[in-house]
Amino acid sequence: MTEPVGTLDARFSDPSATARPWSDVDKTLTYAKISWLSTVRSDGRPHVTPLPAVWAYGALHFCTGAREQKGKNLEINPYVALTTGTAEQHEGLDVVVEGAAAQVTDESRLLELAGLWKDRHAWNFRVRNGLFTQDGEHDALVFAVTPAKILAFGKGEPFSQTRFLFS
């Protein structure tokens, strides 16, 4: 993946701010312990839930049971937003990833992702029939969100909003 270049949105940034470098965004996504997934229900109401996600291969990955609310929502509308960052008000970086969630079923990719879930979140998934499974009882669909847009909110002085667009 070519390293994206961000554009500072001066409307929402301190006059002395500059665009945040991609390396800051990449680090935040790679080391995040929890993200918040926003999906839309069939009647248009939002659904938001915390979950561990894995940033790899130019996409943010998450998993869900097919019968969970987020799984049902994704059957109807693949567009999501995932947010992560820090609870601190005056320091750190918050990141919003927007895009369409696509199910990952390739066994080799799922095996690689299962290894990353174990390394980053201490979750032990096995791969079976294009799904993650735990103890052979709890199957989970795995999704990849290739970003259409990422917003990075620098907190503290100077505060900033940087936009990264992807084609």
UniProtKB/TrEMBL annotation:
- InterPro entries this protein is in? F420H2_bilvrd_red/Heme_oxyg (IPR052019), Pyridox_Oxase_N (IPR011576), Split_barrel_FMN-bd (IPR012349)
Gene3D superfamilies per the UniProt record, alphabetical: Electron Transport, Fmn-binding Protein, Chain A (2.30.110.10)
List UniProt keywords, sorted A-Z: Oxidoreductase
UniProt entry tagged with the keyword Oxidoreductase: yes
The Pyridoxamine 5'-phosphate oxidase N-terminal domain sits at 27-150
Q: Does the keyword Oxidoreductase apply?
A: yes
The record ties this protein, via PANTHER family, to: HEME OXYGENASE HI_0854-RELATED, PYRIDOXAMINE 5'-PHOSPHATE OXIDASE-RELATED FMN-BINDING
**This protein's name:** Pyridoxamine 5'-phosphate oxidase family protein
Q: Which organism is it from?
A: Paractinoplanes pyxinae
